[in-house]
Design brief:
Radius of gyration: 18 Å
Largest sheet: 3 strands, antiparallel
Order of helices and strands: EHHEEHH
Helix content: 55-70%
Strand order of the largest sheet: 1-3-2
Structural class: mainly alpha
């Protein structure tokens, strides 16, 4: 069984210069999961990339957790459409079509 790694919310807040309240808001909005590890609020280290993206959206664009959720959903849809386009292009190339 793989060992799980957690990062304390206090450490994250210090590193990103955000309030713990903001992290709690993200959790309440369903954007991140907070775990209790060794009696401290933490996030799983696999979520750090997503949290970094969320914090940058908040700091750079002054978005609320609700606005961040909308942007992340739109980015996810764009990514899915780009993957679908790539897959369709590959299928067409296999059939001999040219662009």
């Amino acid at each position: 069984m793989a060992k799980q790694s957690f990062i304390k919310i206090k450490t994250i807040c210090t590193h990103y210069q955000v309030e713990t309240f903001f992290i709690d808001q993200l959790h309440e909005a369903g954007l991140i999961k907070i775990h209790i590890h060794e009696k401290s609020k933490c996030i799983h280290d696999k979520e750090v990339h997503q949290l970094d993206k969320i914090i940058r959206l908040h700091q750079d664009l002054s978005l609320t957790p609700e606005g961040i959720d909308v942007v992340l959903n739109l980015l996810d849809k764009i990514n899915n459409q780009q993957q679908e386009i790539k897959q369709l292009k590959n299928e067409l190339l296999l059939k001999g079509a040219r662009f």
